[in-house]
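okkk here we go again. third time trying to get the flavin-adenine dinucleotide bound version out, last two times i messed up the smiles copy paste (missing a bracket lol). double checked this time i swear
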Amino acid sequence: MAVYKAPLRDMRFVLDEVFKATEFWQSLPPLAEVDRDVVDAVLEESAKLNENVLFPLNRTGDEEGAQFNNGVVTTPKGFKEAFRQFAEGGWIGLGADPRWGGQGMPKTVTVMTDEIMFGVNPSFALYPLLGIGAALAMSQHATDEINDFYLPRIYSGEWAGTMCLTEPHAGTDLGIIKTKAVPNADGSYAISGTKIFITGGEHDLADNIVHLVLAKLPDAPAGSKGISLFLVPKFMPNPDGSLGARNTVAAGSIEHKMGIKASATCVMNFDGAKGWLIGKPNEGLAAMFVMMNYERLSMGIQGLGASEVAYQNAAAYARDRLQGRSATGAKSPEKPADSLLVHPDVRRMLLKTRAYNEAGRCFAMYTAKYLDLAKYAEGEQARLAADRVALLTPVAKAFMSDRGLEGTLEAQMCFGGHGYIREWGMEQYVRDTRIAQIYEGTNGIQANDLMGRKVVKNNGAYVATYVAEMRAAAERLQGADVAGLKTAFLASVAALEALTQAVIARAAGAPDEINAAAVDYLQAFGLVTYAYMFVLMAAEAAPKKASDSFYADKLALADFYMSRVLPELDGRVRAVEAGAAPIMQFAEGYF
Ligand SMILES: Cc1cc2nc3c(=O)[nH]c(=O)nc-3n(C[C@H](O)[C@H](O)[C@H](O)COP(=O)(O)OP(=O)(O)OC[C@H]3O[C@@H](n4cnc5c(N)ncnc54)[C@H](O)[C@@H]3O)c2cc1C
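finally!!
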């Protein structure tokens, strides 16, 4: 049977020792009241609820899947009760503004509860997540009247939310959507069109569903500058919040897919459905980006959570499974064979996965710190933090989900053939994690965003401040214990800096160079970023090394990463340097 324990000690290490959370919160007046003891209670409770209630529903949810019957979507057995418990525990509003019934916890807390939730049950996690994302976009773009009415109901779990962007012919390219919004005499709009792949578009977990829909006004300019955002409720609410007539929006079917089978992915038909404009006409895409940026870090965390649960199961299996003998002589001569842990290649798979998880956890917290700064700091500090968030969001989404999936694959391989069999659950982690690379903009599109908008467009300005920060951080590594770490890290930073300058120079006047370089550049960026995370962790662990093997292990894992994972950087650099020509030399007829 699959096992999972929330990695609370590792989380506390990152939170308290690496990021000094209490000092950080106290430096920001709106967060000064965040109580470390309360945060601890939140972590303990989150672990309990997720391990005991949501984790057991992961496998059964996968087997049963969401069901569609004549427009009605039923979630798997147990989901409804679990969602109630989740909502009543205040988990949907954990990071929300208390004005709307939230608990006001910073992102530096919710990244940890998100990791736990995605680790135990990603299909379930998507239902509250979509509501939280929709509420976030509304809170920044809708009127007070709309927010005061809708947001408390979303954060309490009474109502759920969706984001309706994709259409059959328009996924990455939202500029060509066809859904129309025609003004009604009463100030509302009639929305008509078909959206596909809508997560949680219809289900039985909440009384009402609030759809945020991208559509075009009759006089809208062509392309992405002509998209507006609308709020379309499933049931028209009465002024007292009770439900009135059913709106003309309905699920036409649900998708049968590779993974996250308990998450309903719906075709949604809008047939003159009544909706209200959110924000300004034709500025819907910008409003939706608030939601998408929030979701993008979450998709990276989905990869992290999956890789963590996969690691825990693979490590337990490798300890127990007896196969072959150690090359250096039997380690358990009294047994018929040694455990898998004697084999260097099994250790390599486990350590790689664990290195991704520990660096990924630290990186999620690092990104969360800048999200908190962008939201709660003021002036220049907030502006610089927003720049850092802009730079890191595509990396957090793509690199964390890429390495998360790789972690699930390595962990699955530790099981040999048993990893391919349903019984152990490993194949589900692989299937459920693949989607994190695809939705919210594919990882190829994230790489293009990083390369084009965040690097080339500002001539490397965001990268320059990041590189300077990394070099300064390396100076915290002092002494023989960490000398090798420091040298390897500084070399990788120099390589990233040189690569950035090279691609900027080559992109001038050669439009295909950016997209050709994008994925390898993002991987190079991510590899150096994870090295940076190990530097931050090692700087805390080194002085405490003798006191507890926990810290010595952190240093050893940093050493493993630098020597066995970071060298991938060289290959990525060479691939980027080869440029677009080897890719673009083929005529279309070749494919
Ligand atoms: C399970 C699931 C849940 C989803 N949930 C939602 C949801 O809740 N709401 C919602 O609106 N959508 C949702 N989606 C849709 C998802 O976000 C899109 O599928 C995704 O963004 C890609 O769009 P597409 O499928 O149309 O692929 P396309 O846009 O057709 O892309 C195909 C391939 O071409 C590449 N490509 C496309 N354009 C470019 C370009 N300009 N430069 C370089 N490469 C390019 C892409 O990277 C991709 O590899 C979901 C999808 C799935 C499968």
